[in-house]
Amino acid sequence: xxxxxxxxxxxxxxxxxxxxxxxxxxxxxxxxxxxxxxxxxxxxxxxxxxxxxxxxxxxxxxxxxxxxxxxxxxxxxxxxxxxxxxxxxxxxxxxxxxxxxxxxxxxxxxxxxxxxxxxxxxxxxxxxxxxxxxxxxxxxxxxxxxxxxxxxxxxxxxxxxxxxxxxxxxxxxxxxxxxxxxxxxxxxxxxxxxxxxxxxxxxxxxxxxxxxxxxxxxxxxxxxxxxxxxxxxxxxxxxxxxxxxxxxxxxxxxxxxxxxxxxxxxxxxxxxxxxxxxxxxxxxxxxxxxxxxxxxxxxxxxxxxxxxxxxxxxxxxxxxxxxxxxxxxxxxxxxxxxxxxxxxxxxxxxxxxxxxxxxxxxxxxxxxxxxxxxxxxxxxxxxxxxxxxxxxxxxxxxxxxxxxxxxxxxxxxxxxxxxxxxxxxxxxxxxxxxxxxxxxxxxxxxxxxxxxxxxxxxxxxxxxxxxxxxxxxxxxxxxxxxxxxxxxxxxxxxxxxxxxxxxxxxxxxxxxxxxxxxxxxxxxxxxxxxxxxxxxxxxxxxxxxxxxxxxxxxxxxxxxxxxxxxxxxxxxxxxxxxxxxxxxxxxxxxxxxxxxxxxxxxxxxxxxxxxxxxxxxxxxxxxxxxxxxxxxxxxxxxxxxxxxxxxxxxxxxxxxxxxxxxxxxxxxxxxxxxxxxxxxxxxxxxxxxxxxxxxxxxxxxxxxxxxxxxxxxxxxxxxxxxxxxxxxxxxxxxxxxxxxxxxxxxxxxxxxxxxxxxxxxxxxxxxxxxxxxxxxxxxxxxxxxxxxxxxxxxxxxxxxxxxxxxxxxxxxxxxxxxxxxxxxxxxxxxxxxxxxxxxxxxx
Length: 843
Ligand SMILES: *Cc1c(COP(=O)(O)O)cnc(C)c1O
Fold this sequence. Notes:
The protein is an alpha/beta fold.
């Protein structure tokens, strides 16, 4: 009998990973050795595994540069409309394997590295995640870059090169502890600094209204240094650019006239300027009105818009007039997509450039601005909406404040003309919120300054139109759109789940990787016994592999034949990790009460970071680990229930755990999760979803059929009705004995014997001020989990549902999402053109 294939052998089977020609392999080996010598300045006697990783990274990078230069030259010649995706976050994760995947180099590298006596997977693990994001919003930006390149769009990602990304999470005594993410410590082989394109960004100062125009003067200058990262499309020779700005103090910083005496202090103070790009704010779905964050937002906007306008002015067809720039064509050549309100300052900054610098008249400038910008809304949670104090703007961005007031005045005049006497409407729709702290509502600014506003899933886009922005929808309904989120199938299937990719490719070929709707063809194999067995086998192998990883990394032993019940995402009250906790406790109590009965063994894995300032989220982590301590060490429970907190959930960990999941927890209160993208990753990787009718879950159920997901709980209408009536948690507590027992245990110190009152804040919240109505969905959730157990006891039926889910997940490719943005917002068409491969210059 043949020995089972190893992972790396399996990777080779599928030709999408590239043909490992003998010449290619030899070339890679040679290049690797050359980089080890000339770039790393090491030989094999002293090289560390990290040196080998860098040698390989440089080898793979070399395959990008010719295509990168060629693509940019092609854009210059063809001058297509440029798409600018502005985002404060790009949650990229690792780059090495993704580059090999998109260039079709995986097999050749695997073979070359093997011949060198090294292990590719081991080297891949050395790479730091580029964690320049918090969660879904930042990861969406990363998936969009992949799809925009794959669809041949002349697109750019613009953001900040944070020196420290999202913190590393340690769990100490069951509590979250944050560590700085020094991801650049060993250097970043994927970026190229471009000091020659450095640009000034102004802050503070005052506004001079002079006879020959308005001047923003006496400002402090910070320089923006661009770092470019290549973004390869999938096997189409396109390589786009992600340009991230880093803050640099000018050399005369703090050394102006009056300060000549204190040279040393002036040099030390350079940090003040350079702090702008120091660290990512670690809040997910939460607004914290810190001045440094506002500086970050203006910094990326000001540098990016200068770059965009420079590129427009030097473009071939953007402007034919040799003397004056004809900005009339600007919206035909430039689209700016705002990823949430974080880059909203683009709107007043464009106005400032057009009016103050280019001397355009206001109305024309406003028309061009509006036709250029489009805004994506990511949440309706009020605590997440950016509302900056006017006082902060007055100091930091005085001219922008004037412009925002002027924008608002014209907007309110327009509304007043449409609704004479409706003072309350004017108050509701104003960009400026009056009160003891006057604030600027950035979402309102984005809505009036954009030609398109979109939500990120159908249900969310409806909520946007009918509640948060209803007044705006009444006036300009044609601006409001939906663009349901998606994920890139390259990273979230081919890269992370080679086993599943292979058996799919065996059945339907490889085209699904760029046209995910082709997964529909798998419906022909729902009853194919061999395919059912293969799908189950791949899942089992992924579970084995993840179990081995947990053992190796954390000395945690789990049972790979138990159901892997996975709940990974940022820790947030609205995502209701607490509902999951109540289910775990209920299962625990049931097993204790009736230990003789048979139970479906479960390993519940929960992972996610809590914002460092979010007390309740940190308490939730401690509760999860405390429940784990009790459950995992109870001899009555044994193998039947385990609770694991997955430390430091991030992109590279998602790539490991999602392919191993049986059950995907997507249990937010209906109406609170705008879309979710984790839900899509699980569906594509053969997990079944237990979820509420929220975000994109609604569309997943529509695609796969509601009977193929485990849908439970209140719908949005039910939540609204309950809000009208009033939610009374105590009612459920009094009526449902198992719920009462669980709450009493949490409250009495059953899970915290060393400090019985530890979880009183959690209990108090759940009982008396739970905005997310955990108890209201408890019964339906527990019952639904029972149905999950029932189905899991029938592996064949389970796997058939899995296959139906995979087959129906095609809609959730970010290629589909980007195609819709391109056609319906940006006015461009995706292109299947393969740019000819480059001629590599040789010595
Ligand atoms: C996809 C992803 C998310 C988003 O998950 P949701 O369940 O949609 O909140 C967050 N973090 C990481 C690391 C991800 O890969």
